[in-house]
Batch of 3 targets.
Target 1
Amino acid sequence: MLSLAAHEVVLAVGAPNPWFGTTYLEDNYEDVLAALQEHIVITVAAVLFGLVVSIPLALLSQRSRVAEGLVLGSADVIYAIPSISLLLILYSSLGLGLSSATVIVALTLYNLLILVRNVLTGLRGVPDEAKEAAAGMGFGPVRRILRVELPLALPSITAGLRIATVNTVALVTIGFAVGHGGLGALITQGYKDNLYRQQVLTGVVLVVLLAIVLDLILLLVQRLLTPWQRAVST
Amino acid sequence: MNDMSVWGYLTTAASWQGEDGIVHRLWEHVWLSGVSVLLACLVALPIGIGLGHLGRGGAVAINLANVGRAIPTLGVLILFAVSPLGLTTATLIATLVLFAVPPILANAYVGVANVDRDAKESARGMGMSGSQLLRRVEMPLAMPLIAAGVRTSALQVVATATLAGYTGNGTLGQIVFRGFNVNLNYLVVGGAVLVAALALVTEVLLGLLQRAVTPAGLRVGGGTAARDASTLGQPERAAAAV
């Protein structure tokens, strides 16, 4: 049932195996693009789902000490479980099979700890004056959260999103265990294909580059969304 | 044998014995992880604490931790495996240390550098020298965060050591990947459960250690353990919350 990778051998035994060069990319750019695409889809999904789940959990934690203990305690326990282990336990218990959905669920769970903590830190940092002003303007609780508290918590939320994203990009590679590791597939296939160095290096370099690019994009989004922070720092 | 349950696997005495048995693989896992975390502490603690005491190089320490998170551990292990060095016990430990250093360094730095300014000035006012200040004020107050960094690193190392099973370098991970190779689900999932258990035991033991090294005066609110400062976007706030 489980098979690590079905693939063609691309490096012949005894063939030259230089670290750098364009042979691998030229011959396999379609596979590389597909792996990159899968990597991006899994990362974005896991971070977005993580955020969507984290906001209500953080709001709940803000209102109740018991909820905070339960939420952060469980997130702590999940975060302590090594990714490959969590992935395989979820695979055998969720019934989602050898799919990217299994990887997305596992990585979403990881992101909860980082995101709930950062959303909560952001919410706790909202000045009472701002909340009172909102109440004074006749804002109900929902409007106050959406229009005042969450926007003011944005710097901390986006800081959490950046950490979660960089973490997730690196962790997606472990998805190779269920056959959906994005660029991780290049790394493991290169190893199995007679230690094909260019393929392994291409995978590792692209993972790091993707982490950097997504981090920069989020930094830009952070600056655009929180112009008041820029005014303070300059 | 083929339809053995995970529970059946874990509760059969034969599973625990021999070269591929759980006891041997667990020992490899614990030994590799322990040595790597100790070596990482030897490298990172003096540097992190020293930089924190001087209040310099903080950006470097924290950025190193951030960069470390962007690098896939699987990638570095396999890079070693396809290099002329190969993935030996030595290069495996080097990889584990490489990933264990940044969190220890960053947390030690943040912990020492962010010790309350009033506490430092009082110590100076009492006539303490730089090294007395470090040993008697800064280090004790920074202990919760230093321990949090070691805990984060240890969990990272236990997780990464699992991947060594993929390249046939032992550890509990080898049970998982042998399961893949011979198509036995109970080995894959049983191995994964054992890895999770080891990680949780590590987390609990180091949490207790962290409590033990936290000065009594800092144990407030039921002793909520200090959390790794480097995973919260704002280290200064995380440290302030200790």
Target 2
Amino acid sequence: MTGVSERHLLFRRLSAALGRHGEPAGAPHPAEPTSSAADADGRNVRFSRALAATGGVVLSGPPEEALSALGETLRAEGVTALFFPPEDGDARRVAEALVPFGPFSLTTGEEVRGGNPAATAGFRTADAGIAETGTVVESSRGGKTLLPGLLSDVHVAILPGSSIVERMDDAFALYADDPPRNISFISGPSKTADIEQTLTVGAHGPKKIIVLLV
Amino acid sequence: MQPTAQGFARSAQKALNDKSLQAALGRTTGRFLDHRAAAVAAFPGFEAARQRASEIKLESLSRLDQYLARFIEEAERKGAVVHVARDAAQAREIGARIAREEGITLSVKSKSMAAEEVSFNAALEAAGVEVVESDLGEYIIQLAGEPPSHIIAPAVHKTREEISRLFERKLGEPRTESIPELVAIARKHLRAKFLGAGMGVSGANFLVADTGSVVLVTNEGNGRMGTVLPRVHLAVAGIEKVIPRMADLPTFLRLLPRSASGQTLSSYTSILTGTRREGDREGPETMHILLLDCGRSAVLEGKYREILKCIRCGACLNTCPVYQSVGGHAYGWVYSGPIGAVLTPLLVGLPEAAPLPDASTLCGACAEVCPVKIPLPDFLLELRSDLRDQGLKTPGEIAGMKGYAGVMKRAGLLEALERVAGLLSQLFTKGKPVEGLPYPFSGWTERRDFPAAAPQPFRKQWKIRRGAGG
């Protein structure tokens, strides 16, 4: 068991380097002061503004108008197939309602993972939104899939306005007790500037992120 | 990675003569600096976050044994297997063993400087694994067979023409001048690798002690794909990456992207804790975490402990006039710029990296931008004295510095020498800068002119002006 003894040796080196043994860990630092008011409406506005700054799109308002705008955006992006977690009722309703708005077929995360080459939009209900950074939070909590926000060309996150928190600290607090395997903060489209410092979207993940505020 | 920092002067000269590199460097560092400055200006809490981040890191380091023990305990409780490597050879051995035991033939890797330190890819390849770098910049330089030249933009030295030629040669893709098309080509090739890989290798931006989590920050989403899709996730990280609490993350996340690329937050932040849970639809069945010492515990002990606060944002590179001129390769190892000039000697040994502490003008710009307040210029100076103490300075340089110190301590002598210099300057160059001096001073005048000495010594001018001003 070289691993165990190497670990032991590491801790011996660390104690020697620190010149002491077993000091208690310090008290947590106080949280940074919170910046702004806790009004829910203002928070949604701040979230939308911050998301737009990352290149994301927020759709809200009457369902028919939002659906029509969404359908138009997906067509413009060349999307032909839609997928959603089968158990995610809200995502299913939105995706199914969209079918008449374009030549869209329905597919599954497994097919997309299997290498289905169609341009896809992946739908999922987000865990939370963060106003501070315009972030959509999605996790594997409760066995939820991450594929819609991962493998799609356009990701549509369905976000109840009541799930928007003010700061990153509030979002981490949702998970701190027992974090699921995967917590993903999504702040804008997948992008790269690795070639000549030219910002280009769609490096690996979605080229567009659309948040449907409900 | 084998350090070649001793050849700094020669590599730097080569970089200075490379026109396309010079253009790329100017463009990249300038843009990063502008974006960073704008992001910092738009965030009034930046200074407070910096102070706090520095304190949290100091606290983590001063109790690193405890926080690391907590991290290991939590990570293992959540299903991860934690390995410890004392040095690069051990890290490679562990990596190869994991790959063999897991039966891996294809692995996707997201950027990890720690893995680069120990030549991790070579170890996996020797174990029969195809390792594909999935960060676009890293992918490009992997195809080209080169080391990275910037912490967060490893392919800054490549033009789109060079990249297109590379994709044509290595991937059989048609030539294109369009950057979006080049990105799409890489996306297509890498997507197939993500879907087929048995193992995802990642680094770690942070290790969270109270939850056992590995935190990854990327813009492309490669770190996320490689840690959600493959059956095995292997994270490679230096032991100094540990922070005490998940509640500390927001502070660091407010600093890292702003300092690195000027973003409020990078596109993707992944917090990865243990293996997939029962009922999870995806996520790795096995998670390995390989913790590297590789010289860090020795650094922890000495006067350079604070260098371990570094969160690898790259801001000190972009702001450094030396880095702006010579780029990353000249530094001869994984880390470049001011952080490299300090960290490389500490991790590979001063004799192997003797030129690096001198690769600085001590202008102090790096310390001004560092998001965790590392006193980089102080450390560079300190390393210069270490060089002398270890007998790594030439007798000529030591004598020269002694002479300089002797003169500077004697005002009268300095004034007398200034008079002589002023006289010589009037006589030989008519008060113009000196363009050529004999050896050993030619080392200075080869690349720059020596300013002309003033006709009158400073102290005399001072007296006259003060007299005139009453």
Target 3
Amino acid sequence: MVAVTQGSGSPLVVFDGAAFSHGDGRVAVEADLELAAGCFVGLVGPSGAGKTTLLRGLLGQLRPVRGEVRVAGEKVGRRPSGRVGYVPQLETVDWNFPVTVGEVVLLGLVRDSGPWPWPRGQDKTRLDGMLERLGIAELRDRHIRALSGGQQQRVFLARALIRRPDLLLLDEPTAGVDVRTRQEILGLLQELNGDGISVVLTTHDLNAVAASLPEVVCLNRRVMAFGPPAEVFTPEVLRATFSSEMVVFRHEGALVVADAPAHFADHPHHAHVHHGADHSVPAAPAGHGVPATQAGRPGAHPPRERAG
Amino acid sequence: MTWLTEPWSFAFFRHGMVAATLAGALAGMIGVYVVLRRMSYIGHGLSHAILGGAVVGYVTKTSFYVTGGIWGALSALLITGVSRTRRVGADAAIGIVTTGSYALGIALISRQHRFTRDFEAAFFGNVLAVTNTDLVVLGVVSLAVAATVLLLYKQLLFVSFDPEVAASHGVRTGVVDVVFSLVLAAAIIATMRILGVTLIAAAVVTPAVVARLATDSFGRMLGLSVVVGAGCGFGGMYVSYHADIASGATITLTATAVFAVAYLVGRFRSRRRPLPPAGELAEPAAAVGGEPVLSSR
């Protein structure tokens, strides 16, 4: 089983040979994966790779056709675990819906608060504390549309966090936002991770992952590779994951992934030596990054494998 | 002042006023969810569908509320079930189920070769001829709907706003949808003989839309929609009495006039909002990150 072990403690999330189907009989994604408590992991891969499917599996919205998913040792069933907080893609939000910041965040307590519409004293205290913590206390009575992209993301983070989850799942939190907002969101997630919350997010933004996340899982209907971005993001792994040619280089200490120039398709195998004079060769020593293609099956006995 | 007090000396007006105000409030309450769930035509459709049940009640000499209730509940559940399959949207499901049921009602009426006053009330509403039974049914249904909305407030809001995430928070979205369908059917049946098949859609949709124009908060929208619905019923009854116009029509026209005013006030306000002073919108890049790297000069 592939294990992401950067965090401390026992595995929080286990995909134990979990295969998911969208009801058409075909397996959309199959994963053998362990995520340690305290992890901060990005799931990357092309559209249709199964990133969101794995998140839905963790939420209990999609049940595996074989294998199982466990969170904190408990099998994920139809009833979602209170340990998991979920932040959907902002693109899916109905921004014309009449709802204020306070009303949205209180929805996170739907299972824990009393039967009446109005919040109890303790709910108000939790709401105020959460808004304060995320720096949006003064926006409590504002409509959700009347906020900046970063503030909107904080509102939906607050809704997920107010139930005090151990694990936070985010579906493409950096999609469609500008650079400053993206950095703000990733910085906030780093802070939350520092407070002990495990974070798993999906993204198409490889450079943001390379810059901010300690661990990455490359996915294309199975786990193609895992590990720190500097080890995983090699032209070979990226080609296997995205079926596209990409170049990887370092610039002023940052790992940069870019589309290969058009002529590159004729000489794809030169990927690892094709770097500008002022750029260093990518750090991809043998044995790191665990490209799953080595063994013909995802994560089969990689160097960092843990017995499942 | 006599124009305010005089109508109250008539029992039919007092009955009608209670019925119209309560029906307006009930339709306003349920209308918020109908509008926000983008099911605006369900009120129109369900009232037509229930007509099929009303005809069956007439043919079998059973109470309208029994056969109409069963018919309405089945239609609402069928719409919910069909619209949950992703390939058929709610709008198409409403169209198919309700017009099919309505057509069945028309077919049964045509077999009877008679068009009675019962159907006339169902089609056009007759707020001045409400019976004690109508008032009792309306009162009980209003209480039941209000209790359901209070107790399921958060669940209904969550499922209407964000059904997928609601499920991930342990809200049983299927159960909430079914409960909402039944509550909606009950509200339509209770108000149908008062407002009529043809005008009920306006009573459901208009107060909610007026409230939406006035506020960005869900809680305030719900309260305001109930007040606007009740107010239109109340005001519409006075207009009906003094202008001698059918009450269903005056209630609907009052609601339409309130909408027109709310819409125009909203437009006027957004135009009057002052623009920021020149230069305030364009924040220079250098203010954030120091010297610009690229410059045209």
